[in-house]
Amino acid sequence: MRKQIAAANWKMNLTYQQGEELLDEILSAGVKLNEHQQAIFAVPSPYLLMTRSTVEEELNYFASAQNCYNKKSGAYTGEVSAEMLNSINIKYCVLGHSERREYFIESNAMLAEKVNLCLENFVTPIFCCGEPLAIREAGTQNEFVATQLKESLFHLPAEKIKTLIIAYEPIWAIGTGKTATTEQAQEIHKYLRSVLADQYGEEVANEIPILYGGSVKANNAKELFASPDVDGGLVGGASLVAADFVEIIKALK
Ligand code: PEP
Questions:
Q1: pLDDT single digits (tens) 23-58
Q2: Which domains does the chain have, with CATH numbers?
Q3: What is the residue with the minimal CA distance to atom 3 of ligand 1?
Q4: Residue ranges of E strands in 146-230
């Protein structure tokens, strides 16, 4: 079975102490994951080591970065490289979140460079794609997200792309309380998988987890994750509340 993943995105929230407490509360719920399930915590950079050492005792719980830079190393004050993440044993990194695309003007080409650097450094990208509201209203969301995949990922050979995690996050659903319906999520996830299959074949496309993100909550996760092409979620707001995120982990197939 394809990996099923509950990924928390804390964004720029919580103090270090609040982060420690949240992780302790989540872990104390004692949810055991099976071999195809994972819980991943994308935390602010100063919390990466604490998060890694807190969750690594539990099977299939991992820490993730929220971003890294598109250069190998050098005079880029304030940035974090994929090599640095690998050097502290951080194995995941969110790339291309819509907030980074919007506020930090990250282009598909820049994201392709970040993807390469992550893979060279044994860090698995959690690659985000998704359309803004105007594109959804114009009905051109499929073309929009296909272009994001093509321009940032399709230079990769099959054996590399199949190690990635993709997160489909319609921008109009992020932090708005407006969730895509289960049908909308399944429809576009199935389409994304067909785009991957056209390029790489069905076997490869079937191995890549595609997470849904956009107002996933404790009360809608089970229904969303039940769809055949929805392999879990990337969760912002609800990942900051222990009881809610525990329910979301429990909702994994
Ligand atoms: C996100 O941060 O990627 C996200 C989907 O946020 P929220 O769950 O709050 O909509």
A1: 999 999 999 999 999 999 999 999 999 999 999 999
A2: 4-250 (3.20.20.70)
A3: 236
A4: 165-168, 210-213
